[in-house]
Structure formats: C-alpha cells, structure tokens
Amino acid sequence: TVNFFYEAEKAESKKNKEYGEQLEAKVIFDRAMDEAQAITRKHIDFLKLALRDDEDKQRKLFLAGQPRFKRLADWFKAMHEMYDRVLDDDAVIASMAKYGITREELETGRQKVIDASTAKARHTKEQGEAEVATEYRDAIFLKLSDRIHELEVICPYALEDTPQYLETLGITVLSPGYKRKTDSGEETEGEDN
User: Fold this and answer.
1) What is the pLDDT of residue 181?
2) 115 neighbors 30 (Cβ within 8 angstroms)
3) Neighbours of 50 (CB within 10 A)
4) What is the pLDDT of residue 178?
C-alpha cells in the first residue's frame, strides 16, 4: 500500500509537471500566433494595395478570394506559400518597397509564421503528454482507492485489540461504554457502525 501511495504521489507530480509544460507551451504559442497574425495581416493589406491592378498575381499569392481557414494547419500552409511566392518575385518586393516594406520585413513575416507553426506543434505535443500523465495518474489513484477500501475493511478486525491504531489511521473508534444518541434520540452502545 505504501508503494501504491508513493506511485500515486509520483504520478500526481508528473501530471502537474506535464500540465505546467503544456501551459507554458500555450503561452508561447499564443504570443507567437498573435505576432504572426499581426504581421501577416499588415503584409496582406499592403500586398493587396500594391497589387490592386493585378488580379492574376493576387490569386497567385492567395490574396483574391482568400478563403476562411477552418484548420490552423491550412492557415500556416497558405501563409508560408504566400511568403515563399512573394519573396521569389522581385517585382512584388519592389512594389512593397513603395510602402516601406522591405524584403527583410517580409522574411521576418515568413519566420513569424514558421515560429507560430513550431510553437503550435510543441503545444500539441505537450497537451498530449499532459493527457497521458493524467490518465496514468487516474489509473494509479483508482488502484490506490481500491487498496484503501480493502484496508478500511481489514483494519478494524486486525487492530480490534488496539483501537488507538485505528484512530491513527483516521478510523473513528468509540470508547467502551460510550452511548451515542441517534437521530430519534435513542442511545446506542459504544460500537461505531
């Protein structure tokens, strides 16, 4: 039983550690995602402005009729491809320069998308590890609970000659001759039922 207790304590500690890592990864992901969305929003707005007369290029860069992405992975992929195509097109970079947006700033935007994607992958990994740790902890606690129930049944019989040991275990034992009043006002003898 002592081993079950230590194993349960260790499982609880591991679960707390994994949840801490998952929360940390979530904070990092949220920050990276906010940065990526802010810079891509700015770049898309200026790309649309710079290419307002070139619908073909807007479609090529996913600017015209841009779909709403249902999955974050699709957004990451589309933004990554957009930056790759923009950075491969010197004419687009030149038209962005009119608005003060340099190749370096576009490369920074691309890197922010990569950073957010990486942070999301880490968060997902940490989330899975936290769930596994919780499932393991729950299984150990269930075994411990079963073992404690066994002891609660066995101990009163095994320790009936030394009731103070039962009290040490948290099992209430009434002194001999003690009369307990029931809800109806009747007195009962000192056995605890």
Assistant:
1) 66
2) no
3) 22
4) 62
pLDDT < 50: residue spans in the chain = 190-193
Pick from 32, 30, 31, 25: nearest CA to 111? 32
Phi and psi dihedrals of 181, rounded to 5?
Answer: -90, 135
Instruction: Produce one character per residue of 77-100: b if its CB has 16 or more CB atoms within 10 Å, e if not.
Output: ebbeebbeebeeeeebbebbeeee
- Return d(Cα 181, Cα 158) in angstroms, integer: 27
Side-chain-side CA neighbours of residue 30 (13 Å):
6
Cα(125)–Cα(11) distance, integer angstroms = 19
Residue type, 187: E
Query: pTM of this prediction?
Result: 0.73
- Which pLDDT score, from 0 to 100, does residue 193 have? 44
What is the model's pLDDT at position 179? 63
- For 160, what's the count of Cα atoms within 13 Å in the CB-facing half-sphere? 7
- Contact between residue 82 and residue 62 where contact means Cβ atoms under 8 Å apart: yes
Task: Output 163-171 pairs: Cβ under 8 A, ≥24 positions apart.
Answer: none
Kindly tell me the sign of the dihedral angle through the C-alpha atoms of 10, 12, 14, 20. Answer: negative
> Alpha-carbon distance 169 to 167, whole Å?
5
Task: Show the tokens assigned to 171.
Answer: 């099992």
